[in-house]
Specification:
CATH superfamily of the largest domain: P-loop containing nucleotide triphosphate hydrolases
Strand order of the largest sheet: 3-2-1-4-6-5
CATH architecture of the largest domain: 3-Layer(aba) Sandwich
Radius of gyration: 20 Å
Structural class: alpha/beta
Largest sheet: 6 strands, mixed
Length: 277
Amino acid sequence: MTIQWYPGHMTRAKRMIKEELKLVDGILEVVDARLPLSSRNPELGNLTKKPRMIILTKTDLADPEQTKEWMEYWKAQGETIVGVDLLQGRGLGEIRQCVANTFPSLRRLPRLLVVGIPNVGKSTLINGLTKRKGAQVGARPGVTKGKQWLSAPGMQLLDSPGILWPKFEDQEVAKRLALVASIRDEVFDQVEIAWWFLEFLSQHYPHSLQERYGTLGADDTILEEIGRRRGCLLRGGVVDLNQAAALVLKDFRTGKLGTITLDPSPGSELDDENDRD
């Protein structure tokens, strides 16, 4: 399976973002804490050199040790980064302080463009910063459309549609993006992604797998076993693998499998294992 997804509206959105970068003082780059590297659009750095802050969202769903290591790594690279838990409202004050420190001499409120890939939490972040429900939020990628300027304490925010990049050279990155719903489910084979993810869990988060589904057998029957235990059955007792795969993906996306990070931090044991592979 090869995953590619770059619908026409993303080409238009990229052109729009290029124009809007001329209107702003800096960028809030929203990144999924479960994918601190894979959820960063590699094309963004080529579009502008204006000040940029990384806002790490969904930290409540990510492995806290991995999150800590990633934040230390990005800071060592000279990046400004803030981790937030938008459900609890944590980190919003730190963002405001970072903005104030970045633009100390401006005589007006800094104007910031909020950018990120689909379904990374841009609209939820804006809602938290503005203390209002001004930006539309959806569980499917591609919900935000058009231009939205919103006022927030200490800043002016310009929302933008989520965009990916034209081609995924690394299919491992594409699989991770599919898992966190940054790529529409209709674009890829959910059964194959579920198999891939369960193998990842078996290697790196076996306790999460056992706590959610109990003790499981061999890797080549694990999805079928989960489906049977959860009642994903067709006539004659045959396991519906598509239903079982959808269940596994939902469990991950809603945090029922615990805190998991798919991008290993630089220099971590998990990263070294991937390099050897």
